[in-house]
Amino acid sequence: MTSDRVFGFQIAPIASLLGGTQSALNPQGPVASEIAALTWLLFAGAAAIFLGVIAFAAYALFARRGRRAWMTRTEFVVAAGIVFPVVVLTGLLIRAFLPTAEGDGGPGSASLRIEVIGEQWWWRVHYLNAGGGHEFATANEIRIPVGRPVELTLRSADVIHSFWVPNLAGKLDMIPGRVNRLHLSAEQAGEFRGQCAEYCGGPHARMAFFVIAQRPDEFETWRAQQQRPATVPTTQTTERGQLLFVERGCGVCHSVRGTAAESTRGPDLTHVGSRISLGAGTLRNGAGALAAWISSSQHLKPENLMPSFDTLPAAELGVIAAYLESLQ
Q1: What is the domain range of residue 211?
Q2: CA nearest 306: which of 327, 326, 290?
Q3: Does residue 162 contact residue 263 with C-beta atoms inside 8 Å?
Q4: Least C-beta-crowded within 10 Å: which of 56, 165, 167, 219?
């Protein structure tokens, strides 16, 4: 259990006024709660020391000379200038390491393992089975069950990225050629925004993702659905959209399991219609957003690696978007 009190004061109500879906001051998991508690402790300690220094300075300036003579004694100088800083800074250093040491159980405690690969400028997500193999792939979205520890295996496919979802955990770099691991869990259901916290070129500022915490039964239902192949088209519009998706070359970069589109260069779109955002958090998902992204991706997210298909006829664009929206 982690504490949400600092110096006896309840910090959660204060934090809720300052934070939202992407705020380290609104913790929704045990690791983030430890970090928030440390943050408030440092804020409070720094404020107290600042006020103390100002009080001493005011006393030295305005008190009578005879009454402030004690401030020039060697004992006071040593105590205030050496002993106090050493003791306080050492204590804060030890306290600062506690969240890292405690975590939420560490290796071996996770009931769910997920591999996240940072790419320019999106997130490839693989859910892993007990043997470490891939169950299924998704992109820019991580769903987890409430109350269960999760281990994230973090890698980079190109440059240095940094994985940060402040409501649930601290940030951790993703370094080419290196595998880092982050443990987190969510205490309640919700939708939490994360961000790449290391400049990685181009549209770095639009490299976001979402962690969605669900009740365990809802998560298992979603997980079972994600393992299935893509939904088979049931209308003339979606059938036409599937055909055009392949004919217009979308399968050169994307895969839709159960169809001829099998490329792994870009995000897996097998169940893209069930995701809440497009373009790594650039747009809220929907048929209109899908059409806008396909036709104007370079306008919406300049320099991303998907070209704008602005020459597609509006009718074709509409049916492709309808097909993708149907992939739940």
Answers
A1: 112-219
A2: 290
A3: no
A4: 56
Strands 208-214 and 141-145 come out as parallel
Is residue 254 classed as helix, strand or coil in its secondary structure? coil
Q: Are residues 206 and 145 in the same domain?
A: yes
- Mean local confidence (pLDDT), 202-224: 96
Residues shown for the chain: 328
Supply the DSSP string of 120-151, one letter for each residue: TTEEEEEEE-TTS-EEEEEESEEEEETTS-EE
Is the separation of the CB atoms in 183 and 168 below 8 Å? no
If we measure between CA atoms, which residue out of 106, 88, 10, 22 comes closest to residue 49?
Answer: 88
Total domains in the chain come to 3
| Cα angle for residues 140, 142, 147 (degrees, 5° grid) | 160
Domain assignment of residue 43, yes or no: yes
The answer on 70 and 120 residing in a single domain is no
Residue finishing a domain among 159, 184, 219: 219
Q: Tell me what pLDDT residue 186 has.
A: 94
Report which of 171, 197, 198 is spatially closest to residue 184, judged by C-alpha positions: 171
Query: What are 225-282's pLDDT values in tens digits?
Result: 999 999 999 999 999 999 999 999 999 999 999 999 999 999 999 999 999 999 999 9
Q: What CATH number is associated with residue 159? A: 2.60.40.420
Q: What is the pTM of this model?
A: 0.85
Residue 131: which pLDDT band, with cuts at 50, 70 and 90? confident
